[in-house]
Fold:
Amino acid sequence: MPLHRLAMAGQWHWYLLHDRRPLDRHLRLEHPEAMQPLEDVGSSRFYLDAHGTRLFKIVTDKYDWRQRPMKWLLRDLLEKRLSGRFAGYREYRSNRIIRRAGLKAVECHAYGVAINPFNALGSVYVMDYRRDAVSGEPFFLAQGESGRLALLKRMCDEALQLIEHGYAHRDFHYGNVMVDGDGGLIWIDTHVRKLPADPQRRRACVAAMLSPTKLQGEAYRRWALEYLEARLV
Structure:
């Protein structure tokens, strides 16, 4: 994993990045307004490279080392960074699982971790930036009721496809997909979890991935739950 230096908001940071596709060792990242919808539906930060072709997802530490030093040491530093279980690597592994299940996922270019333990921007995941597709959240909000349910149905159908392979999405909401010109879905946040073998526990895990907040209301959560439960084996 070679060293790379990334500039965000005018400040340089060093990272160890596993390059799946070649990256320049020194990159100035930009934060255009188009990143705001991505940041509004989660806690991650998003940047583009100078060419506007690569999207950098930055996951910050959960705890501030100055305010919660023990929590930061045990959770962010030991459990995640030093153990190799940082967010970028877990997302890369989940991306591969989603692809093996036959779903479309955004292409991963690199993933890595900050060198400086006190750099709160701890994890990096680099992917394609798809200008030919739109984020699922504004797409959903722009639709009438039939269009909204059509998008939710497509997401549920692909969730069922993943469930058949023994996994479920950890974060199931419209902002985690992009919709291409043909109406197809591209998963951009690919965190998944292994499902238990017991059918009852399996159903409970599937129900737990549905949130009224993330699905824009209890009516959509209930619709998705009924649709999924009717098709679970």
In short: The mean pLDDT is 91. Residues 3-128 form one domain. The longest strand covers residues 11-19. The longest helix spans residues 145-164.
